[in-house]
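Pentatricopeptide repeat-containing protein
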Amino acid sequence: MESNGIQINEKTCTVILIELIKCDQLELGFEFFYRMLDSGIEVSVFSLTVVVDGLCKNGEINRAMELVEEMVTRGLKPNIITCNIMVNASTKRWKFEELKKILDLMKRVGVDLNVETFKFLVDGFSSCGKIEEAEKVVLEMHQKGFMVGAHLYNLVINGYCRLGNVERAFALFCKMEEENICPNIDTYGILASRVSKMGGSVTAKEFIKEMQTKLNELEVVLV
């Protein structure tokens, strides 16, 4: 690529690429990316990620994966940002076949999952009712030494409550205490709401009373 005899480098091309995709010119951006390759410009993983992001936002996850696979054969390995964009897109759209392919690709090329990857997985599995899968991800995070926040536990606990599996929801609540993770106001709210629907048993009443005390304590702290 040359303009008025001036050689255009990868940095300049990446700026053009970003602007094309930002202006909803995805196809032009895609073509421009290949022109960069054909011109012998050393394409960076950042440029690849720009195109992958554009494709995923357009719902073209398979096309994004195909591009990444092709670039791997050309010697360009995706990074965790590239992969997380695809993971996020597939979990948001409940495209779990695509998700499996992405995770397999990450394993194959040596890109380790990070805390953001796990968050996308928990959120995606929880939102579509795959609560057991979401719980497995949370447990895997502990095994790998990642910090698991109350927010992720809340997603799974709420999922089990929606399914009517209160026993499993409380088991996870106990797991939080085992792992020294402080339940927050949402945790107690989710459990109290579910227990209140169980009827007027003594156990339910006692739990609601305990949860109300915890909620009041948290509100005092927040104020």
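thats it. The chain has a mean pLDDT of 89. The chain is about 75% helix and 0% strand. bye
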